[in-house]
């Protein structure tokens, strides 16, 4: 069984010898009570505001940075506290014992946490070593840090959002639609898939770091690895450049042009995380563009000509799915009785407009597909193009089902991920693939 990151050490006499009210419980803030790093929490409490303060200070160096971090606005109520340690502390407090936190840095924030939790104060490790304490040293019980938390494979899989890699299978679409299914083509497509997955995981970690405060107030996002304190912030900061370096190396093995497309994807993702996701409808268009960039990258990676029909179809499809995602998020907030999201430029009252736009984009995608089947572009690729008409009702069914499930608040995931998990959706997609193969 995995050992906890803290241990209980008693330096006092037997409990029967000292009344509970006379005892004092001393808890290490970092590594015991707090499932995170206080310095990192201060750094990512509001990165943009902290950078502005640091730039306006005019004093470079660590001293200036420490001053800025000391003034950071940390939401003490939503920090990831260890529930077992917190329960022990509250139980001791209820019995009349005094409770102190041990903190070696950012004493102002440590005092703020102690005050928020109703503890008696803060002492430093130097105070403990020198015996300069505001309580009787002979009655101390201590819960102390025994070492850093080591996140396991399950935590990393969750933090890197490996389940989101399903989206990156879009890089295989150009090869499939161009009927270029040889070993070399699939090899390059697989390498492109790995490059996009590594790049996306780094972007997800960065996004979660920037959204720590907002995620901890969200009904489901508070369970993310960084927000919950399962993954140390410092570990995420080390993983981000490593993932991006791997993505660059894989891209260079494919082609410089593919690296350029991946770079555009990463730059757009960063802009989305920092600014664009807070702009009404700009976020939807950006998400649709990011999905379409995966298809563009797939065409560049395997060296096939990208069909304008495929590109236009994908833009309408992904715009609809992005709108469905926003609709699902807002409807879940409405059902939970929550206020409008603070980090999105949408209101719960926008639900009906968003649903109408999602349906319109979906129908436009079906229309574009129908025009493609009617065009001469299908003749070189399909010997029985008339069979492709059978895909139209399946597309109408799948888009309609996605909208209905979102309206019923039964779609907690991203619509593309939902399609992989939903039985009827998988059946519809499998049927469309079979029809396409039969039409060749």
Task: Describe the model.
Helices cover 58% and strands 5% of the residues. Strands 1-5-2-3-4 form a five-stranded mixed beta sheet. The chain is elongated, with a radius of gyration of 27 Å. It has 18 helices and five strands. The N terminus is likely disordered. By secondary structure, it is mostly helical. β3, α5 and β4 form a beta-alpha-beta unit.
Summed up:
The protein has 440 residues and is mostly helical.
Q: What value does the Rg take, in angstroms?
A: 27 Å
**What overall geometry do the principal axes of the alpha carbons give?**
elongated
Question: What are the low-pLDDT stretches, counting only 5+ consecutive residues below 50?
Answer: 1-18
Secondary-structure content class: mainly alpha
Largest sheet: 5 strands, mixed
End-to-end CA span: 55 Å
**Count of helical stretches:** 18
| Share of residues in strands | 5-15%
Proportion of residues in helical segments: 55-70%
Q: What's the total number of strands?
A: 5
Mean pLDDT: 84
State the strand order across the main sheet. 1-5-2-3-4
Order of helices and strands: EEHHHHEHEHEHHHHHHHHHHHH
């Amino acid at each position: 069984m995995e050992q906890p990151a803290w241990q209980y050490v008693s330096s006092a006499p037997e409990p029967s010898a000292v009344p509970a009210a006379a005892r004092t419980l001393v808890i290490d803030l970092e590594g015991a009570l707090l499932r995170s790093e206080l310095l990192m929490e201060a750094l990512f409490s509001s990165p943009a505001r902290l950078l502005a303060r640091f730039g306006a200070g005019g004093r470079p160096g660590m001293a200036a940075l420490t001053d800025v971090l000391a003034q950071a606005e940390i939401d003490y109520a939503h920090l990831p506290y260890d529930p077992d340690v917190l329960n022990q502390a509250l139980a001791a407090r209820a019995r009349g014992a005094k409770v102190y936190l041990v903190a070696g840095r950012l004493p102002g924030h440590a005092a703020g946490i102690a005050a928020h939790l109703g503890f008696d104060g803060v002492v430093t490790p130097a105070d403990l070593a020198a015996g300069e304490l505001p309580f009787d040293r002979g009655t101390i019980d201590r819960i102390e840090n025994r070492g850093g938390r080591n996140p396991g494979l399950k935590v990393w899989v969750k933090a890197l959002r490996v389940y989101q890699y399903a989206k990156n299978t879009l890089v295989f679409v150009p090869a499939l639609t161009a009927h270029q299914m040889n070993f070399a083509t699939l090899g390059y497509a697989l390498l492109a898939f790995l490059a996009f997955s590594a790049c996306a995981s780094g972007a997800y970690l960065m996004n979660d770091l920037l959204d720590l405060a907002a995620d901890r107030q969200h009904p489901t996002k508070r369970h993310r690895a960084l927000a919950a304190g399962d993954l140390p912030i410092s570990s995420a900061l080390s993983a981000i450049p490593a993932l991006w370096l791997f993505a660059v190396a894989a891209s260079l093995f494919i082609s410089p042009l593919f690296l350029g497309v991946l770079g555009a994807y990463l730059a757009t993702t960063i802009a989305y995380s920092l600014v664009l996701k807070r702009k009404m409808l700009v976020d939807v268009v950006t998400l649709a563009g990011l999905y379409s960039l995966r298809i563009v990258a797939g065409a560049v990676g395997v060296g096939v000509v990208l069909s304008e029909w495929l590109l236009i179809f994908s833009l309408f499809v992904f715009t609809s799915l992005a709108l469905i995602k926003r609709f699902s998020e807002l409807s879940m907030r409405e059902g939970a009785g929550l206020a409008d999201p603070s980090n999105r430029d949408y209101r719960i009252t926008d639900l009906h407009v968003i649903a109408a736009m999602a349906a319109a984009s979906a129908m436009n995608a079906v229309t574009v597909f129908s025009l493609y089947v009617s065009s001469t572009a299908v003749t070189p690729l399909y010997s029985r193009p008339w069979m492709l008409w059978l895909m139209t009702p399946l597309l109408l069914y799948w888009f309609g089902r996605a909208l209905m499930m979102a309206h019923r608040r039964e779609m907690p995931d991203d619509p593309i991920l939902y399609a992989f998990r939903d039985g009827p959706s998988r059946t519809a997609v499998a049927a469309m693939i079979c029809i396409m193969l039969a039409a060749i």
